[in-house]
Structure prediction request, 439 residues.
Amino acid sequence: MAEVRQIVLELLAQLGSSKEARQYLKEFSSVDETRFAVVKAGGGILRDHMDELASALSFLHRLGLRPVVLHGAGPQVDEALAGSGIESLRHDGLRVTTEAVMAVARPVIYDLNMQLVEALEQRGIRARGIQHGVFRCDYLDREKLGLVGEIRSVNLEPLRSAVRSGALPVLTFLGESNSGQVLNINADFAARELVWAVKPHKIVFLTPSAGLLDRDGRVISAISLDNDYQALMNEPWVHSGMRVKLQQINEMLLKLDRSTSVSITSADQLTRELFTYRGAGTLVRRGESIDFDVQPTAEKLAMVAEQVEVSFDRKLRSGWAAGLEKPQLLMAKSQRAAAVVVNGLEGTPYLDKFVVTPDAQGEGLASAMWQVLNARFPKLYWRSRNINPITSWYFHQADTSYRKGQWVVFTAGIDDPELREKLIQDALVRDPGWQESPR
Ligand code: ARG
Prediction:
């Protein structure tokens, strides 16, 4: 096992750095075995990306991680129904499940479940198909919907048993009534109930689009619901499918620990998403609160100083904090992000330091910080070195930029060109507070 783990770690190192991989492996291994992740894959993924799915899951298994897999069969059932000439109606997005529909759907679902288990076992890892005994249901609306279940309780014992014996639990969207009648359950409802019962650290939705897309069709890297939810819901380009997804995720996360995150990605990007800071897909979290401090204590500033030193790999002068002019501080709850704003030229706020740890950057904490910063300081100027990787990101946050030598000076919300000119000159000659020589 140790040997396999080593090989796997080396493989992971190729994705990012082995440091990142190790950090996440440690994080994911620190929660209770069954609580690492719930992975939901729609039927379309099993149809078009079975190989990628099986290899990503078996990879996790080799690392000693045991995701709970929940898979659908929508397109396959549609196809089978069409093939047997049975009309398949939908009501409020739910499949009306007559006995004839169930008779066709059930074997298709079992078959897919078996296929996925087989694909995993062929890769030399253990998997257990669990088709029953997890979702205890009542009829949702027997008259209208037929054999469709509404989940009353979730029994985790079958999947715990699988995990105890070293196998990946592979679940379907079928449940049973009290009397044992098999009922069809809507995929989103099942995922939600399962997630609430398992309380996993990670929730993974596998989609062909590999994430939620913005207005230009690009994958949105991170969403922090506390900061972005309302704004996103007001965007006209957030169309119905995405709107529903966001609502569901929001509802889901509200009942879980703040450390829980949802990753929306594709099967072939899953490893990259899980084991790198930047990820590959969309990471959704509730976010963390950001405290605003108008008179930060020396202790707090010392803490920020330390973060700044680590992140820039340079030492600040010992009197740095004391020399700041009316410093104000923004700091994220986890202390992985901070911004120090001082009184600049003519009282204009100058952003003296801005630090976000790399893992927090991947979670979108830099953007979340910036939103708060922008709300507190609609007028702001700052500078950054050309070579600093964050500089390219600042261009998107600023209204104007001015390059000179190694510096780029940025301003936001400063409309007066004369003042802007003075601020630029001021920024260029500011004392950065470093000790003479780099460490
Ligand atoms: N690897 C981390 C995780 O899975 C961070 C992923 C960041 N992903 C992103 N799309 N920004 O929790």
